[in-house]
Specification:
five-stranded antiparallel β-sheet, alpha+beta, elongated, 20 strands, 23% helix, 404 residues
């Protein structure tokens, strides 16, 4: 027996199953913005589908496209697993009006679209100045402010009708207390804070402000600097003396260092002492083979003659007592003369081994110091076992020429 089910009940069951299989759409759509940087975020309940993976698709279009029967949607993020989508790189016009939508996908089952309208000029937040620089002056502070930057590193003045800056500055004591807070609103990028106390610490922070939509940025980090003042004359004089003293010290150090280097190089390359210190210390212990002319003048002259020239050992002893040869005369002083008939101007001295003793006796009697020195030198020379013998030198002072 078959039961007939009405068609409207069957259609309702199919419709109920399809509705149950459709995932929930994303919710809490929000835009996180700063200047021209835009990011769309949303929430989604994962518990509705359990552990099944879910992805999202984000599309955008201009509000003017919605008036068409088939508007053209641009996909910004396709099948992303995150809960955000960055729209910065799509160059949304700052003064435009856009419609954004997000859809969830669970195992091929699509949710309905969730929509959000977005106007950058009205909703996008502005950032603080990108850079603030301070420079101290006499009783004043010069400030250089750089405009907030877009995502393409251009100034936000290109998009904002009226961009101004609110400058908050205050005096800060040595113990960290804040005194005399003041505010300056300006559209200039190079304002000056005047009428400040000289030699005082001041702190400054700046924020951007747009009057059209009354948008205000956050403050920049505080920067502190000390103002300048008129320098007393005694400080200028003290600085001058200090710099002068420092200059002379540097020059003195360079001169001393250069002198020491020169002395070191001179002592190394051109030493003044030719002998090493050990040899120099014992220099007096070694014999001197070569003497100077001045030392040579202090020595007594000694003539070394051949053995044949010495006749003292070969002459008869009786001849020592004989008189002088013919033609020679002897005076009382032991001087000899010879007459030469052929020349009255020539004169000479004759000596032989026979009368050497007498001559030595006469020399000794006349020059006793020479005699003693001659004897000592003769003994020294005779003690040497050599092939030579010493002939004593008869000084010329003992012999004079006589004319006949």
């Amino acid at each position: 027996m078959f039961t007939v089910v009405p068609l409207f009940l069957l259609f309702g069951c199919l419709q109920f199953g399809a509705a149950e299989a459709e995932p929930n759409p994303p919710h809490n759509l929000d835009m996180i913005t700063l200047n021209t940087n835009y990011t769309l975020t949303w929430d989604w309940d994962q518990s509705s589908v359990g552990s099944d993976p879910v992805t999202f698709t984000v599309q955008y279009t201009g509000n003017h496209q919605l008036k068409k029967k088939t508007p053209r949607w641009n996909t910004a993020c396709r099948e992303t697993t995150g809960r955000s989508c960055d729209l910065t790189g799509f160059n949304l016009h700052y003064l435009g009006l856009y419609m954004l939508r997000v859809q969830a996908n669970v195992n091929g089952s699509l949710s309905v679209w969730e929509y959000k309208q977005f106007c950058p000029d009205k909703e996008a937040a502005i950032g603080p100045p990108s850079k603030v620089r301070l420079s101290a002056a006499v009783g004043a502070l010069d400030i250089v402010i750089t405009d907030p930057q877009t995502s393409s590193n251009s100034s936000m003045r290109e998009h904002l009708l009226k961009l101004s800056f609110q400058i908050h500055y205050w005096e800060q004591s040595e113990d960290g207390k804040v005194l005399n807070r003041n505010t300056l609103i300006t559209e200039s990028n190079m304002p000056t804070l005047s009428n400040l106390t000289p030699w005082t610490q001041y702190c400054v922070r700046v924020q951007s402000h747009c009057e059209y939509y009354n948008k205000t940025s956050s403050f920049t980090p505080p920067q502190c600097i000390q103002t300048e003042g008129v320098v007393p004359w005694w400080k200028i004089f003290l600085y001058f003396l200090s710099s002068l003293l420092l200059f002379f010290l540097v020059v003195l150090v360079f001169l001393y260092g250069g002198h020491q280097c020169f002395q070191f190089c001179k002592a190394t390359l051109f030493p003044g002492e030719k002998l090493p210190s050990p040899l120099k210390h014992h220099e007096i212990d070694y014999p001197c083979l070569l003497v100077s002319d001045s030392e040579l003048d202090l020595c007594d002259p000694v003539i070394i003659c051949a053995e044949s020239a010495i006749l003292e050992n070969n002459v008869d002893p009786a001849a020592d007592s004989a008189g002088p040869p013919v033609g020679l005369g002897q005076d009382s002083s032991g001087r000899h003369s010879r007459q030469n008939s052929s020349s009255s101007g020539d004169s000479g001295v004759y000596s032989a081994g026979g009368n050497s003793g007498a001559l030595q006796h006469n020399i000794a009697s006349t020059f006793p110091d020479v005699k003693r020195h001659f004897d000592s030198e003769q003994l020294k020379m005779l003690s040497m076992k050599s092939d030579f013998k010493v002939c004593p030198v008869i000084p010329d002072e003992g012999v004079v020429d006589m004319e006949v």
